[in-house]
Amino acid sequence: MKKWFAAALLLLAVGYTIYGLSTLTLVTSSGRPAAGFFPLMIGVLLVLSCAVNLWRDVREWTTEKQTGAFAPHKPDPEAEAKADAFGVDAHAIDGGPEYARDVVIVFVYICGFVALLKPVGALMAMVLFMLAFLFTFNRAHVVGNVVYSLALPGFLYGLFKVLLNASLPTGPLGF
Amino acid sequence: MLADFVSNLSLGLSIAASPEGFLFLVIGAFLGMIVGLFPGFGPAAGIAVLIPMTFGLEPTIAIIMLAGIYYGSMYGGTITSILINTPGESATVASTIDGYPLAQKGRAGPALVMQAIASFFGGTVGVILITALAPSLANFAASFGPSEYFLIIALGLLMLTTMMGDNKFKGFISALIGFAVGTVGVDVMSGQQRYTFGSPELIGGVYFVAVAIGLFGIGELLYCIFCGQHRQPAKRLRISFRDKEFWPSKKDYQESRFTFWRGSAIGFIAGVLPGSGATLGSIIGYSVEKKVAKDPEKFGKGEMRGLVAPEAANNAASAGAMVPLISLGIPGSGATAVLLGAFLMWGLQPGPLLIVNDPGFVWGLIASMYLGNMILVTMSIFAIPLFVKFLDIPYVNVVPVIVLLCVIGAFAINASIVETWILVISGLIGFAMKKYGYSPAATVLALVLGSMAEETFLQTYIISQGTMSLFWERPVSLVLFIIVLAVLLAPVLIAALGHARQSKDTLKRETG
User: Fold this and answer.
1) Mean predicted confidence (pLDDT) in B77-97
2) Cα distance between residue A21 and residue A30, in whole Å
3) A165 versus A14: which is more confidently predicted?
4) Which pLDDT band, with edges at 50, 70 and 90, does A4 fall under?
5) Residue B282 contacts residue B333 (beta carbons within 8 Å)
6) B71, B171, B327, B353: least buried by Cβ within 10 Å?
7) B369: Cβ–Cβ under 8 A, 6 or more apart, which residues?
8) Strand runs (DSSP E) across B358-461, as ranges?
9) Mean confidence (pLDDT) of chain B
10) Which of B493, B494, B444, B473 lies closest to B208, judged by CA?
11) Which of B114, B119, B129, B98 is nearest to B311 (CA)?
12) A27 - beta bridge partners?
């Protein structure tokens, strides 16, 4: 996936530069830099560095493939904790357990939550998100999940809407 | 001089010690301790996620609370470093080296108390130095032109990416991404719209808070889920300050008496330097302490000085990082970049003129840091059992709190669903960045400083008629330019020297 992310970045960088070139003025009539000057500089640097980055990641992937470095390793929790704190991908060190499926599920739930904000209102969207999340990952505690799914959104809704007077979307029921 | 110091500080104390100021300082410090406790959730994420909760507050009070979260997390992060060998955030990694072995030896209590005292010492020394240095630096910076500002921004970003070791190239790309996102909106010089795709919501640019909450909050959260933190059971730990073994011995204090000073001095210098910050400060603090020790073999096996040095250093560094933020308006780390964003959100323009134009804010913030450190040392010692109890909460129950705060917070800023979707997309990108070795901190820093970088770069370009000679014609610019070049070229030169030495050795072996 690393190389695909690098490829996506390169694609975005190319798109950013081409779009900038085609829509923005680079230099004014008096020869001064215009609105497109800085974005063009950034765009060119981005395209070049993303291209080198992609080349490096593909080379790394090919080497790993040839040397068979993809084989699963034994997890080392201590190394993972330290690597994690340093902001390094701990799993690249020991191939410890990865929960990509859970990430996808949570991300889909978050998207659903945001999509429901306007149609059903903030409070209901929060409750639905919490129920979905807790009943997926914490199934053993049914009563606790329901109470928590009502209490936390209620508290946050009160905090933002009443105390902080923030503008939150309201649903058909008025909250 | 002394009279100025006293009058400035009394002005600050009158604001920070007001009932409202004190209340939100305590709330900020408390939240900061909790933010520090949870691994993978650093001060940048904490501040970003909690910014929306400061709505409705007066700007100075809001920033006092956010700053409390910032340095409070340094105190909280060490608790897990000592007790479970898992640093709450990167600045407390060095504290695990001797902190955890101390706990294993049955000295968790003394270690927790000494870290609190070292944090207090470092933080207080840092704030005293801010009080002394920030006004002088602001005076000095008043003469800075666009070339100096551009070079300081470039230096900050370079240092931040250099810190990333093998991943510094990805750090460079991360910064460019931040600059690119920063160009969305209306160009301030010509008024032309850029990358808005006709959307009125993008005319004002991509709002940094949504991006910061997404990259740091949702991104970190998804990464923690990827690592399976939500499937781990809670850690049940118990600690009580009534235990006989809870308090440090006289020997602990005596052996560490110089360590407090050394750690604080090193940390403060590291904090003031753009881009380096508390993580580097704590690591250097630890290394120096080990080097100057007569018994370095004790380090790593539960030596109190090995805990005191990084703790004093990371707190002094977090105070030091406020110096360029307040006096130049240039943050040196992800967390201070988010703080700068909060400054701008509240209509405050950090820079040399901030102390002159808004002394109440600057001195209120500085005074709050004195008070904050006192509150935190008290909390860190007497409320340790309470904070340890937070570790009882399984991560699966923490996830919804973070998601709800992020989404509702991002929406509440401008009641914009577009910004909420920007948060979601930034979260996904933040997760990928963390997973593949990019730097979300560099992206946020570049995003926050993007418009300033563009403006100062173009001004330098126009004034020097396209030659950029302003970079080496002005004395301060020249010094900064040389430093930037050195930071850029040093790794290349070191690598080249290494290669040359290696080939020389190979040649020698082959001929010999």
Assistant:
1) 79
2) 19
3) A14
4) very high
5) no
6) B353
7) B67, B71, B123, B126, B127, B130, B319, B322
8) none
9) 85
10) B444
11) B119
12) A33
The Cα–Cα gap between B439 and B152 comes to 19
H or E stretch at B196: none
Q: Which of B93, B411, B425, B457 to mutate to test the interface with A (most CBs of A within 10 A)?
A: B411
A51 CB near a chain B CB, below 8 Å?
no
Q: Could you tell me the pTM of the whole model?
A: 0.81
Q: How far apart are the first and last CA of chain A?
A: 42
A52 and chain B in contact, CB less than 8 A: yes
The pLDDT of residue A58? 92
Closest by alpha carbon to B115, among B255, B283, B305, B318? Answer: B305
**Token couple for B334:** 């992800």
Spatial separation of the C-alpha atoms in residues B461 and B458, rounded to whole Å: 5
Q: How far apart are CA B272 and CA B160, in angstroms?
A: 13
* Residue B435 in tokens: 């997973």
A7-57 pLDDT per residue, tens: 999 999 999 999 999 999 888 888 888 889 999 999 999 999 999 999 999
Residues β-bridged to residue B193: B186
Residue B38 confidence (pLDDT) above 80: no
Quick one: pLDDT band at residue B121, thresholds 50, 70, 90?
A: very high
Which tokens go with B473? 């014609």
Which of B100, B472, B126 lies closest to B300 in space, CA to CA?
A: B100
Looking at the predicted structure, is the pLDDT value of residue A72 above 70?
no
At A15, list the tokens.
């798109």
User: Tell me, what's the ipTM?
Assistant: 0.85
Split at pLDDT 50, 70, 90, the class of A93 is: very low
Instruction: Say yes or no for a CB contact (<8 Å) between B192 and A2.
Output: no
Question: Is the pLDDT at B144 greater than 90, yes or no?
Answer: no
**What is the number of residues in chain A?**
175
pLDDT of residue A85: 47
What is the token pair recorded at B72? 């409070």
Tell me which residue in A45, A84, A167 faces B39 most closely, judged by beta carbons: A84
The mean pLDDT of B343-372, rounded to a whole number, is 86
The whole-number pLDDT of residue A136 equals: 94
**What is the C-alpha separation between B496 and B179, in angstroms, rounded?**
30
| Residue-wise DSSP of B224-249 | HHHTTGGGSPPP-----TTSGGGSPP
Q: Does B187 touch chain A (CB under 8 A)?
A: yes
Nearest CA among B147, B122, B381 for reference residue B264: B122
3-state secondary structure of B194: strand
Residue of B nearest to A97 (CA): B227
Any A CB within 8 A of B425 CB: no
Residue B165 pLDDT grade (very low, low, confident, very high; cuts 50, 70, 90): low
Q: Of B303, B245, B236, B241, which Cα lies nearest the Cα of B106?
A: B245
Q: Are B160 and B172 in contact (CB under 8 A)?
A: no
Q: Could you give the 3-state DSSP secondary structure of residue A27?
A: strand
- Given a contact cutoff of 8 angstroms between Cβ atoms, the answer to whether B349 and B73 are in contact is no
Q: How many CB pairs under 8 A join A and B?
A: 202
pLDDT score for B166: 64
**Distance between CA atoms of residues B469 and B463, nearest Å:** 9
Q: pLDDT for B281-294, tens place per residue?
A: 888 889 899 888 88
- The DSSP output letter for B145 is -
For residue B186, report the phi and psi dihedrals to the nearest 5 degrees.
-85, 135
Which candidate from A2, A35, A114 shows the least CB-CB separation from B190? A35
| Residue showing tokens 């509150």 | B375
Query: Does A147 contact B at CB distance below 8 Å?
Result: no
pLDDT of residue B179 exceeding 60, the answer is: yes
Question: Which residues are paired to B186 by β-bridges?
Answer: B193
